[in-house]
Specification:
The protein has nine helices and nine strands. It is α+β, with helices and mostly antiparallel strands. The protein has a three-stranded antiparallel β-sheet with strand order 5-6-7, with helices on one face. Helix 3 crosses helix 6 and helix 4 runs parallel beside helix 6.
Amino acid sequence: MIQQPESSPFVLDNTKLMQITAVDVRSTASISIPGANGPLVTIHPDGRLEYGPGYEPDEAARLFWDAMRRWAPSPMEKQFGRPLTERINANLARGQKAEETLRTLALMFEGLQRLLATSSRDWGEYRVDAWLWAVLLGWDCKEDVHDETCVHGAMEEMQQRHGWDDAAVAKARRYRAAVRAVEAFAEEHPAAGHVYLSTGCLHGEHAYCQSMTGQQGEKRPGRCKFCDARCTCSCHGEAEGAA
């Protein structure tokens, strides 16, 4: 039951002000913050606090705010709605996974290329060997400016030697272009520069990512707990610019 007395004006420094009266809110239920061994804190309708076994203020506060975050919509949900927010978060997660896969592929290609390039084997002699070289290193000249050291026509020679049709040559060049794209990505995003996206930001909880305290204790705001990589979420743009 809510009882709201009528407000009455009063005068302060010759200025008429409206008196603010407290609202008496009576609830019939208690609010509990559950813990591993029962309620950590119980808030009774009369405002009385009852502490349970194993009560720790930090743990109780964390559980309280975790519950509030689950109950309240995230800033992204308020702006975009739940369905679109879930799609954005899912795409962010897939993008992060794809970047990790590309870096792994780049390392794999680098190892295979080194193996082929340092081997004394004639990689153009046999059909399968020639195909591996075409995809991983390419028979075409890669130089932008050509000189007498450049070798031209190697792909055409392999095509004639091994009976590849034009479609096979086009496929080999397409696969080689994909390998080079992975190589370019690895150069632009080296493995040492960990691309980090906070789990909080991934789920729209940007304030949690930027806070000083995490679920396991003190943390560095907006940074990877294993290295100094910044969170890539756009919500950290201002902080990064100020650093």
